[in-house]
Amino acid sequence: MKRQVIQNVLNLPGIAGMALIDGRNRPFFFGPDISLNTQQQDALAQGIQQVVDTTPAHFETFSFRFANQLAHIYKLGQGLILLVLITDNISLAEYGTAISQLKATLMEAPHNAVSTFRLLAGCVTLGSSALTPAAPSPAAPESAPAPEPAQAPVTPVPAISSPAAPIQVKLSADYQAVVVALNHLSDGAAQYLGKTIVINTWRQSRPAHPWLEQFELQQDGHFAVTGSGQPPLTLEQRQWIKDWVSAFLKRGGRTIRNFQTLVSGQALTPEEQRLLLEPSPPPTP
After folding, report:
1. Is pLDDT at 185 greater than 60 in this prediction?
2. Which of 106, 122, 144, 174 is most buried per CB count within 10 Å?
3. If you average pLDDT over residues 218-225, what whole number do you get?
């Protein structure tokens, strides 16, 4: 593995950082703008691993929005995953060339990639070319792979959806209020986690109540009801929805600190908060 190749990527203007995940070793995050603590890094790596495990095999690269950055994920083989965080002002042509060389050097020894990357990253000087384009790597082999197309270094993958499109039904006022509130919450969460992770988090946190299965997630992260959607909601059904929302927010909080406060406070009206969230305990006298 070549240190100069790693440095060329990290010193590209617009690169916030990157991480290597292999499912065996602790994920390693490194870069000029990595602001996640260890717990958040572990949670993000776990979420990425879960998403990768549920994507079709032919998807080798995809992207999602994470906070104010764009996260590109590359499945490199042998269980190795490369995460690159970038801002919107990056040069795609330079990025595509540098990433092609980085992927090639990582796959020279994929089983030791995380430990080797950690060792070499300690010798990388960050920011040495922050104001100028990175020069071609002198250590790159002559047989380095051709650069990826500048116009599309990654191919976004649609969020994983159900095999069949749900049949839309006319909803009663009760159901409509729940769907609208859930969609507002889902949109708010997507600003921090991205739609793909939000959809997977909803599915992984759903309680084991068959009644909840009628709330199906679409590719845009919104809900659609496939059941009757007509009878008024019972108290038990309302509690199932709150349990689901609570589990969703708790799981999201593993990645984003104060996730529930950030998302519910910004995305939900007071009435929607009463509909989806457990009431706050009264203050202690």
Report:
1. yes
2. 106
3. 86
**Span 3-121: which CATH code?**
3.30.450.30
**Where exactly are the structural domains of the chain?**
3-121, 173-276
Whether the pLDDT of residue 87 is over 60: the answer is: yes
Task: Give the 3-state secondary structure of the chain.
Answer: CCHHHHHHHHCCCCEEEEEEECCCCCCEEECCCCCCCHHHHHHHHHHHHHHHHHCCCCCCEEEEEECCEEEEEEEEECCEEEEEEECCCCCHHHHHHHHHHHHHHHCCCHHHHHHHHHHHHCCCCCCCCCCCCCCCCCCCCCCCCCCCCCCCCCCCCCCCCCCCCCCCCCCCHHHHHHHHHHHHHHHHHHHHHCHHHHHHHHHHHCCCCHHHHHEEECCCCCEEECCCCCCCCCHHHHHHHHHHHHHHHHHHCCCCCCHHHHHHHHHCCHHHHHHHCCCCCCCCC
Which of these ranges, 70-74, 184-188, 224-228, has the smallest mean pLDDT? 224-228
